[in-house]
């Protein structure tokens, strides 16, 4: 590979990366704006949304679902527990695992919040056509593979 080709590839890669990060941040800020009104952080919402759709989970699985470290997830769950939105209990199958479940208050909050969240995503993503969204989805999946 020539130096010129390498430089051109680097400029393209860096420019694409910057656009990806800016788009990601812009979409995230827009879609998550309503969460502050509900007293939730993005991580807190991610946890209660995951449990709402997938059922009770151990902290390790929740951390993996919302792309956070195990240490960070403990603090987030502690705060959700203080707000009486989740509860933790020992797994019957393996007592080493703490399973996180939604309380009735947590279920009510996510049931009221999720439709607005989904509508915000739909609105923001409608800037792309259906085929563009499918193409982007494939490209992002490819990019995310390690």
Structure, briefly:
With 146 residues, this protein is mainly alpha-helical.
Describe this structure in words.
- The protein is mainly alpha-helical and 146 residues long.
- It has one domain: Winged helix-like DNA-binding domain superfamily/Winged helix DNA-binding domain (Arc Repressor Mutant, subunit A, Orthogonal Bundle), CATH 1.10.10.
- 68% of the residues lie in helices and 8% in strands.
- The chain contains six helices and three strands; from the N terminus they run ααβααββαα.
- A three-stranded antiparallel sheet has the order 1-3-2.
- Strand 2 (86-90) and strand 3 form a beta hairpin.
- Helix 1 (3-32) packs across helix 5.
- The two termini are 24 Å apart.
- The model has no long low-confidence stretch (mean pLDDT 92).
Which tags fit this structure?
single chain; 146 residues; Arc Repressor Mutant, subunit A; 6 helices
